[in-house]
Amino acid sequence: MDYGISMLSLVPMRAEPSNRAELVTQVLFGECYEIISRQEKWLQIQLASDGYKGWIDANQHTTVLKEYYQEWKSAQHPRSMDLVQVISNADERIPVGIGCYLPFFDGMNVRIGDKTYLYNGRATNPEAETTIAQLVKVAHNFMKAPYLWGGKSVFGIDCSGFAQQVYGICGVQLPRDAYQQVTSGEEVHFVNQTQPGDLAFFDNDEGRIIHVGLVLEDQKIMHASGEVRIDTLDHNGIYNAERKRYSHKLRIIKRIFQA
């Protein structure tokens, strides 16, 4: 098996080996993966973080040794907390965004393979205990981020990417898609029993989970729908006051983060 790491702020991962194929997610800077197969100039990979599979352009691949990959996978890595920052050494300057991985960050340097890079921005501490207030504060960094199917950054993000990023920055690894995330946590039976940080899931007419949002205080919800926005949540679902209608039908609420 061969292994790699993203050395770009975001690497598109697609459903098929084509630039025209659906964007299913993005590989963040500093995120490791395993190569499953190859097809011409495309690599099918599986992310070390959440096990997600898809195709990336081979030109955006950087090789790492198996030993580094295994070390990366067994460690908890700090995440960038600045909306935009730079990682650099004498030869390279790489832009990174909030939520990107900082492998083996020691407070000053990031180690990737046998190279080190300077990072002087804000970073999370994986060993510190996260509070609900901190979780909500992280979420607010993504406000007004435009909706992008498969996106995971402040410059484009989808509903489940938003949930995964917020929780990931706070040290909790969620699956990538909403229908996978709904299997996590414990059910909250009534909207009036929710607490900030709970995840609310919404289904379509066929009963399939198609949307997720982060519950806030006072029965508000932050979610990616056109943009990352705040709307009202009740037992029916999400009510969009601007359009004077419900936009999503509530299925279930789960408590992931235990205070």
Task: Give an account of the 3D structure.
- The chain is 12% helix and 39% strand.
- It is built from 4 helices and 20 strands.
- Strand 19 (237-240) and strand 20 form a beta hairpin.
- Helix 2 (132-140) packs across helix 3.
- The longest helix has 11 residues, at 159-169.
Span between termini:
41 Å
SSE succession:
EEEEEEEHEEEEHEEHHEEEEEEE
* CATH level-four homologous superfamily name of the largest domain: endopeptidase domain like (from Nostoc punctiforme)
Beta-strand residue percentage: 35-45%
Structural class: mainly beta
CATH class of the largest domain: Alpha Beta
Task: Give the overall form.
Answer: globular
* Tally of separate helices: 4
Biggest beta sheet summary? 6 strands, antiparallel, barrel
Q: Could you write a compact summary of the structure shown?
A:
The chain is mainly beta. The chain has helices at residues 66-73, 132-140, 159-169, 178-181; strands at 2-5, 10-14, 23-28, 32-39, 42-47, 53-57, 62-64, 84-88, 93-97, 109-112, 115-118, 152-153, 156-157, 186-188, 199-203, 209-215, 220-225, 227-233, 237-240, 245-255.
Topology:
Layout: E1 2-5, E2 10-14, E3 23-28, E4 32-39, E5 42-47, E6 53-57, E7 62-64, H1 66-73, E8 84-88, E9 93-97, E10 109-112, E11 115-118, H2 132-140, E12 152-153, E13 156-157, H3 159-169, H4 178-181, E14 186-188, E15 199-203, E16 209-215, E17 220-225, E18 227-233, E19 237-240, E20 245-255
Antiparallel strand pairs: 1-4, 1-7, 2-3, 4-5, 5-6, 8-9, 10-11, 12-13, 14-20, 15-16, 15-20, 16-17, 17-18, 18-19, 19-20
Helix pairs in contact: 2-3
